[in-house]
Design goal:
It contains 15 helices and 17 strands. It has 449 residues and is of the alpha/beta class. The chain has two domains: 132 residues, Urease, subunit C, domain 1, CATH 2.30.40.10; 257 residues, TIM Barrel. The strands form two sheets. Strands 5, 6, 7, 8, 9, 10, 11, 12 and 13 form a nine-stranded parallel beta sheet that branches. Strand 6, helix 3 and strand 7 form a beta-alpha-beta unit. The radius of gyration is 22 Å and the shape is globular. The N terminus is likely disordered. It binds zinc ion (ZN). The site of zinc ion has 6 residues, from strand 5.
């Protein structure tokens, strides 16, 4: 036997990227109402070092370009972890900003007709790509998403997220009653579709499956039981649904499930409350509901622009926080009126203000970044600039336009500056979105493939 020259294993070259700017992230959760907090990590004019798509550290000095660092200088700009939108509907981009309805009318008039179109694979594919590119162009690099009841709509979203390297959690919407026939499944076919999608997509790269009953009124008790059984069989699955958004909806659930103690109790009895469960809205809950949520480790998802737009009600953030419930923040487009997390943060502030409470910029930004990642059990992967996390990073202008610029010039202190940024900025302030260290949106050049 003879040997040729020893072959060296092929090693892909190390990619090194360093971003300079004002780095802001969280190491912990700020207390409600606290303006000065050690939970915040602000590193003005620092370099964020990224190696092979992961954060390697931060430092004040520029790294040595001779060691292969690609130096990108954004000094004078704000660098944040990418936002995580914990509840948003892909097919509803087509009905964002629709006039004059509350939840139940709104579903029948606008949402269900838009969702029917997603039975067509071409519509689902184009819709998924347009939707994820829109998220990236708003500084959102990870999301928990409702597609439609159609299997193809889930496939399209997973495939489009995989192409972009994004963390995406989604799953086929379950609906076997109280919706147009074109949007109905049944218990057996829904279970088959879920199992097939789980086996092919769950845990593949940054993709994960969420068991997705739309809400209690559109699933029979048998279908909710099937959804609970899926969750019990595999504790790594997520679950997403809606709860207690609107008073008419709450009354309807009480009629449909007369033996349940409350709306939330319908889900608890079906085995759908667990640490990987996300429940959107949670406006009309009581103390027993909040205790059940805290006990289970499930998270509530506050959707402020949607709650205002549909006139649903004012979410009681401090009550949920005090009960020990995890809270994240979301756009809920198309009930929500913008994919911009800053606009949703501003609406979150207004919702709390209407109820006589004050949300700091820290509470809001934490819920949209590290808090969401913690609640999803994914804080080792994203939501902050800790060493080893994937570099999902966005670069923002501190101010755009004469009003914001003038305001930014007179701010005193960090909270005042970041709060003004939160209120006055939106997607037009976004310069770059990186996903795992790769540019996926650039204001000057549009989307990156
Ligand atoms: Zn929703």
């Amino acid at each position: 036997m003879s040997f040729a020259a020893a072959s060296t294993p092929s090693v892909s070259p190390t990619s090194r990227l360093a971003l300079r700017g004002d780095l802001l992230d969280f190491v912990a959760q700020a207390e409600w109402g606290e303006l000065e907090t050690s939970a915040l990590r602000f590193q003005p004019d620092h370099w964020l070092l990224i190696e092979n798509g992961r954060v390697q550290g931060t430092q004040a000095q520029a790294p040595d370009a001779a060691e292969g660092w690609d130096l990108q200088d954004f000094s004078g700009r704000l660098i944040l972890p990418g936002f995580i939108d914990s509840h948003v509907h892909c097919p509803q981009l087509d009905v964002i900003a629709s006039y004059g309805a509350e939840l139940l009318d709104w579903l029948n008039t606008y949402t269900f007709p838009a969702e029917c179109r997603y039975a067509d694979p071409a519509v689902a594919q184009q819709g998924a790509q347009r939707f994820l590119d829109a998220l990236l162009a708003h500084g959102t690099t990870a999301a928990v998403v409702f597609p439609t009841v159609h299997k193809v709509s889930v496939e399209a979203l997973f495939a489009a997220a995989e192409q972009r390297g994004m963390r995406l959690i989604t799953g086929k919407v379950l609906m076997d009653r109280n919706a147009p026939p074109a949007l109905l499944d049944d218990v057996q076919s829904a279970e088959r579709d879920c199992l097939d999608l789980i086996s092919r997509w769950h845990g593949r790269g940054r993709l994960a499956y969420a068991v997705t009953p739309r809400f209690a009124p559109t699933s029979t008790p048998a279908q909710l039981a099937m959804a609970g059984a899926l969750c019990r069989a595999d504790a790594s699955l997520f679950m997403q649904t809606h709860v207690a958004e609107n008073r008419d909806e709450v009354r309807w659930v009480a009629e449909l499930f007369p033996t349940a103690r409350s709306y939330l109790d319908v889900y608890e009895r079906a085995g759908l409350l667990h640490p990987r469960a996300l429940l959107a809205h949670g406006i009309w809950l009581d103390e027993a509901d909040r205790r059940a949520l805290a006990r289970s480790g499930a998270q509530l998802v506050f959707c402020p622009s949607s709650n205002l737009f549909l006139g649903s009600g004012l979410f009681d953030w401090p009550a949920a926080h005090q009960a020990g419930v995890n809270i994240s923040l979301a756009s809920d487009v198309g009930g929500g009126s913008s994919l911009s997390m800053q606009r949703n943060l501003l609406d979150a502030y207004k919702v709390q203000a209407l109820a006589g409470r004050r949300m700091t910029a820290w509470s809001g930004l934490y819920a949209a970044t590290r808090g969401a990642a913690e609640a999803l059990g994914l804080a080792q992967e994203m939501g902050h600039f800790g060493v080893g996390t994937l570099a999902d990073v966005c670069v923002w202008d501190w101010a755009q336009g004469p009003v914001a610029r003038a305001r930014d010039e007179v701010v005193r202190g960090l909270h005042e500056r970041v709060f003004a940024w939160m209120c006055l900025s939106d997607e037009r302030n976004l310069l770059r979105s990186y996903v795992s260290g790769k540019i996926r949106y650039s204001r000057d050049e549009g989307m990156k493939g």
